[in-house]
Design goal:
The protein is mostly helical. The protein has a domain at 46-163. Helices cover 37% and strands 0% of the residues. It contains 6 helices and no strands. Helix 4 (70-88) packs across helix 5 (105-113). It is globular and about 65 Å long. Keywords: Signal. This is DUF4331 domain-containing protein. Residues 1-20 form the signal peptide. It comes from Tenacibaculum singaporense. InterPro entries: DUF4331.
Length: 186
């Protein structure tokens, strides 16, 4: 359910590659050395945390946000994130309101505005497991519910319960315990 669209997209892309590579005439394939990679390239999009980018970046600022390097995003966009967070979530209605991490709206907005996935190199890798927060992302992590809890759940995850869960609690198939880890499609 949660990953069906991603599975369909992945299968479509793989099918395109498979069909494109099924040719009887291998003589028209240019060698890699002849491909020209010179020129100027520009980043057009970034979404380390897509749900956050989608919700908190104003539509007229999407292009500017997407080309700003992450080390500058907090300074440039935290105020917009804070405004949108306060407008969106009743959990931040009063001065001094915090989320379950103890972050007030301004502090949480500065965390959200820097669009990077943090990774613990020497500890548990998880989006949230009750103790560790934003130390990475495991396949089974319920990222959207965690984000909803941090945005709407208030100090102890009890505020706004109807806004704090997407009610998708697991993948439609179990993940594998060895590489490639993703469940086989259908």
């Amino acid at each position: 359910m949660k990953l069906n669209n991603i599975k369909i997209l992945a299968i479509s892309i793989l099918s395109i590659f498979a069909l494109a590579s099924c040719s009887d005439d291998d003589n028209n394939i240019p060698p890699m050395a002849s491909i020209d990679f010179s020129g100027s390239y520009m980043q057009k999009d970034q979404m380390g945390r897509p749900a956050v980018n989608t919700v908190f970046v104003n539509s007229d600022m999407k292009d500017a946000f997407n080309v700003t390097i992450p080390s500058e995003q907090g300074a440039n966009f935290a105020a917009m994130f804070e405004t949108n967070l306060k407008a969106l979530s009743p959990a931040y209605a009063n001065d001094g309101d915090t989320n379950a991490l103890g972050l007030d709206a301004a502090t949480f907005a500065s965390v959200l505005a820097t669009d990077v996935l943090t990774v613990s190199l020497d500890g548990t890798t998880t989006f949230y497991d009750g103790t560790n927060v934003l130390t990475g992302r495991a396949l089974a992590d319920d990222v959207i519910t965690v984000e909803l809890l941090l945005i709407f759940g208030g100090e102890d995850f009890s505020e706004n319960p109807t806004l704090s869960d997407d009610h998708v609690d697991a993948n439609d198939k179990n993940f594998l315990s060895s590489f490639p880890y993703l469940a086989s499609p259908w």
